[in-house]
Design goal:
The chain is α+β, with helices and mostly antiparallel strands. Helix content is about 20%, strand content about 50%. Strands 1, 2, 3, 4, 5, 6, 7 and 8 form an eight-stranded antiparallel beta sheet that branches. A hairpin with a 2-residue loop joins β3 and β4. The longest helix is centred in the first third of the chain and has 31 residues. The termini are far apart.
Length: about 150
């Protein structure tokens, strides 16, 4: 009788170990699956004035717009970004003045309305904000601004 009980316990342990191993492997498979990130539409842009340029990407999100880019200033220059829904201004940002340098110039624009912005204006000026040198508008749905 003692022998049967030992065999029963041993068999139960093996089944429990197999179930635990299977659950562990299944858990690892699920844990290793990458999370799917939402793919937001993007538009690329380049604005140039002489040897100065601002080049990068507009990322259209639901209630914000991210602008990432490289700003190369020859002389002293600034870049600006404005997010709009049709003709309604939602947010506006500017870089600091850059003189004879190259740097990242990102903008995070808040567009806290349903659907977000449908256009973004980008422009470059001298250190005087009223002295606009060049500009481009980007529209949601266009892969290249122009």
């Amino acid at each position: 009788m003692m022998k049967d009980r030992t065999m029963a316990k041993s068999g139960t342990r093996k089944v429990a170990a197999a179930v635990a191993a299977a659950a562990s492997v299944a858990g690892m498979v699920f844990a290793a699956a990458p999370a799917t990130a939402a793919a937001y539409p993007t538009s690329t842009f380049t604005i140039k004035y002489g040897a100065s340029y601002y080049s990068g990407t507009v990322i259209w999100q639901n209630r914000s717009v991210a602008v990432t880019g490289t700003f190369n200033a020859v002389g002293c220059r600034r870049v600006y970004a404005i997010a709009k829904s049709d003709n309604t201004q939602l947010d506006y940002r500017s870089s600091s003045t850059h003189c004879n340098s190259t740097a990242a110039a990102p903008f995070a624009l808040t567009t806290d309305i349903a659907g977000g912005a449908n256009n973004v204006g980008l422009w470059m000026s001298t250190e005087n904000p009223n002295d606009i040198l060049t500009s481009v508008y980007c529209y949601r749905g266009d892969s290249v601004c122009g």
